[in-house]
Amino acid sequence: MSVEHLSAELSPLSVQFVDGIAEVRLCRPEQCNALNIELIQALLKCLTDLQHRQDLKAVLLRAEGTHFCSGLDVASVMQSPDSIEFLLSPMPGFPHNRVQHLALGWKALSVPVIAVMKGYVFGGGLQIALGADIRLTTPDSQWSVMEGRWGLIPDMGMTVSARGLVREDRLLQLTLSAERFNGTQAHHWGFATDVLDDPDYAAQLLLSQLAERSPEMVRAAKRLYRDSFDEVETNRLTLEEKLQRRLLGSAQQREAAMAQLERRPPQFD
Amino acid sequence: MSVEHLSAELSPLSVQFVDGIAEVRLCRPEQCNALNIELIQALLKCLTDLQHRQDLKAVLLRAEGTHFCSGLDVASVMQSPDSIEFLLSPMPGFPHNRVQHLALGWKALSVPVIAVMKGYVFGGGLQIALGADIRLTTPDSQWSVMEGRWGLIPDMGMTVSARGLVREDRLLQLTLSAERFNGTQAHHWGFATDVLDDPDYAAQLLLSQLAERSPEMVRAAKRLYRDSFDEVETNRLTLEEKLQRRLLGSAQQREAAMAQLERRPPQFD
Amino acid sequence: MSVEHLSAELSPLSVQFVDGIAEVRLCRPEQCNALNIELIQALLKCLTDLQHRQDLKAVLLRAEGTHFCSGLDVASVMQSPDSIEFLLSPMPGFPHNRVQHLALGWKALSVPVIAVMKGYVFGGGLQIALGADIRLTTPDSQWSVMEGRWGLIPDMGMTVSARGLVREDRLLQLTLSAERFNGTQAHHWGFATDVLDDPDYAAQLLLSQLAERSPEMVRAAKRLYRDSFDEVETNRLTLEEKLQRRLLGSAQQREAAMAQLERRPPQFD
């Protein structure tokens, strides 16, 4: 097992690499992990770093303390016109702006992102959560599409990240009411993939299942669903075949098949 | 509070304005609010009137009597080739015909439409209900995609209004069987946003939540989800930013934020 | 009642026609109906035959024995490069390859396909099931997106067939974990339309409801939802009107309406 710490002692974000898994933790627990400009900058830098790592198999996104994220630190961000212009400026290399990248950047990674949400999952925190591929939460977590209270709409990519997950009528109702809902409802409505008493354990279980898959199959699976989403039928089917042809007969695919036939764990290293 | 009555005594439709809310009531209770040509004409005129009002914040759509709407008044409409040609003729200013406008006209309004459905929600009545943005019903309401009994398919825009709400396999099964299902099932399958013993109370609660939102944010929220629906990812994200930039720093947005910080109700008038 | 048997004694597939219903049965019960090259060839031929029958009203797809289908017969198929090239070669007349046609071929038929799944519904079997328009299963059936165990991704059209049925986060989680889930979960997540103790009875009930619909309405209903799926709003609405105009006033539509008004069963023969 190789452990690598990349974050400074006082950073609002902790990033740790263990056996190909990047564990990213929001680290402002005293402020309910509210998004101030330092945490936002750290998240954007982290996403850029992860984008360039070839040795990743998955990302685990979670938070220090009781709450996942209480949303934008309004006092810190909204007062400064410069901060707002920075957030709405284009994210280099992506067809969206920086505040949207805080959520959609996780989807853009080539490996699956699993997020664990407890406590408050409010506003920008909810939208970051929606950027993760698989979202695990507790029954008593508290969620809110909170932007309406500030006279604003959610603008961190939710029209993309929630598509196919949460129905439009529910999104509109929650956006207009800005009311809180718990983790059980969040799961029922599609914000969370699963609701569990111990989502950390469930995340570890999924990571252990991932360890039995070939790294190239894991990346192909993420691409398959993400890149087909916006495509018409013919392009979806072409993508399926293209990705499969790359896997078929590769060293990793043959090892996976041999291990399966011999009823032993595969060895991909 | 300002109340304004726009409907004549014997009209099959009642429209009433109270504090920026238009309450629209189907008024043929003795005929289960079946859609005869007079009610259809009144609905089309009402939708055109509402389209041009600048002072609206929301629409509440409901029905007099026990039943929301038992569908097309077949004896009245189907016998006349003229009526059918009228219904299938283009709705001026819209990319759909008049019978489709009976449902999609609600989506085309710039403010949220909340509908309350009780009793029968059959055929054309079900399709009108699906045109509302947020749909509240009782557990014992009765629904049916009824057109198949007449050798017809549903053609009031359901392929648009039900998209993302009701799964295609369920739509096909209900279209082929033409069977009845209750409000609990309607909610489970996505026809209704919520199922409640007292949907009128729930509608009033949502309207009271809306009263705390700025009028421009309410319209932006409706546009956000409606106009992004048919768009590819890049256009969705551009729309998010465009709508948000219009809100940011406006008088209404600043009042919403100040009220939030000062923990008082906002004043938008 | 007219019965017609088209399958040879030892064929891995049985096809039987009764009163306009084609009943297709996978017939390798001793091998859990695993897809070997003979069964695949028989399915492709069957789909081509059904495509050309004008007298069909519906298709019922099921399996002999305890299990619907345990997926690809890997020993038989994966060992031969020729088999793999055959499966990935274009299906004549369709914008997809042969292995995709095993699932999407059912959608391409002009009549509804109802499938009954019990026991194992694994890998390719799961993907064939998803090609059916209406999918009925038992609570204790066992499902798995199994391809990852072999270092592969699902490539039988699931990005098309599961769209709008199963959420992308669930598809990714099941693809990565390759874990088993039961019929109740399959229904909850959208793989199955309904979960019932006796799905065969439910299939017969739906077929008896279909018998009361006009043949042309049944085909129009299938087309309505299938052909609008990939289309933008305007095209969906145009299709609705086009299909309805063909039905309106036809002999079958008038008979359906007369039977409805006279409260008698319609006669379409």
UniProtKB/TrEMBL annotation, chains A, B, C:
Indicate yes or no for the key word Oxidoreductase. no
- Which CDD domains does the UniProt entry name for this protein? crotonase-like
* Annotated InterPro entries: ClpP/crotonase-like_dom_sf, Ech1-like, Enoyl-CoA_hydra/iso, Enoyl-CoA_hydra_C
Pfam families, per database record: ECH_1 (PF00378)
Gene3D superfamilies from the UniProt entry: 2-enoyl-CoA Hydratase, Chain A, domain 1 (3.90.226.10), Lyase 2-enoyl-coa Hydratase, Chain A, domain 2 (1.10.12.10)
Tell whether Lipid metabolism is among the UniProt keywords: yes
* One GO biological process term: fatty acid beta-oxidation
Instruction: Tell me the keywords, alphabetical order.
Output: Fatty acid metabolism, Isomerase, Lipid metabolism
Q: In which pathway does it act?
A: Lipid metabolism; fatty acid beta-oxidation
Can you name one GO molecular function term for this protein?
A: isomerase activity
- Report the family membership: Belongs to the enoyl-CoA hydratase/isomerase family.
Could you tell me what this protein is called?
Answer: Enoyl-CoA hydratase
